[in-house]
Specification:
33% of the residues lie in helices and 24% in strands. It is α/β, with parallel strands linked by helices.
């Protein structure tokens, strides 16, 4: 692997980038602590803030989103699906690239509202058209190259149900530029880079906010609602 940043990867380098990320996660325990990098204790705080953010649109007085279907992207063992999405939406699907996480999610979520457990990387995945009111992407988009992230968001935008939304929740840098992690093969972008990617995908930011009450030693986490 060369020292190119993730947005510059091409050809075999891109294939290697995704393969090494998949290998990394295959060796991480399929537990809450595992998928959260030993920080399972932040999950309740994370879910609380996510619920506050999404409920702005679920309970909007003049333009509420429908709650028929949601998709949890990069779902891991199904933490967000279990603790947030199945409490709001009639049906929920998950998409996750790790086969062992998908298998664990089937027992971990324990809800008949979850209909589909899809094993796929997001760089190759296309959401079914007209199935989802919300597509939720959290702590996963850092594994996509810029070009693949734009393409994925475009596919999401085209296939949302009318009045649907894409939610993005990701770590962001405050140092002005990406930070590449060559252990898990991810890149932490800054907010300006995310906004440029959203614009390139034809998406507008309807609302954005920061996660509150996380430990100071962690990256800031930002939430966006996109359409």
């Amino acid at each position: 692997m060369s020292d190119h940043l993730v947005h510059e990867l091409v050809g075999d380098e891109t294939t290697e980038w995704y393969a090494k990320a998949a290998d990394y996660w295959q060796n991480v325990d399929a537990t809450l602590d595992g998928v959260l990098g030993g920080l399972g204790f932040v999950s309740p705080m994370d879910i609380l803030e996510s619920e506050r953010f999404i409920n702005h649109f679920v309970h909007h007085p003049s333009d509420p989103i429908a709650t028929t279907g949601a998709l949890d992207c990069g779902a891991g063992i199904g933490r967000v699906a279990k603790d947030l999405l199945v409490k709001i939406f009639d049906k929920v699907d998950i998409v996750e690239q790790s086969p062992k996480y998908v298998e664990q999610a089937k027992t971990y979520i324990d809800s008949d509202r979850v209909e589909r457990f899809i094993c796929s990387g997001l760089q190759e995945f296309t959401p079914e058209a007209n199935r989802y009111d919300v597509i939720w992407c959290q702590w996963v988009l850092s594994h996509l190259t810029d070009a693949h992230l734009v393409d994925f968001l475009q596919r999401c935008r085209r296939n949302l149900r009318p009045n649907g939304l894409i939610f993005v929740k990701e770590n962001v840098t405050s140092s002005g530029g990406p930070i590449v992690d060559r252990e898990d093969y991810s890149v932490t972008r800054d907010a300006t880079q995310f906004h440029a990617i959203f614009a390139a995908a034809g998406l507008s930011v309807l609302k954005e906010d920061f996660q509150r009450n996380f430990p100071k030693k962690l990256f800031p986490v930002k939430m966006w609602a996109l359409r």
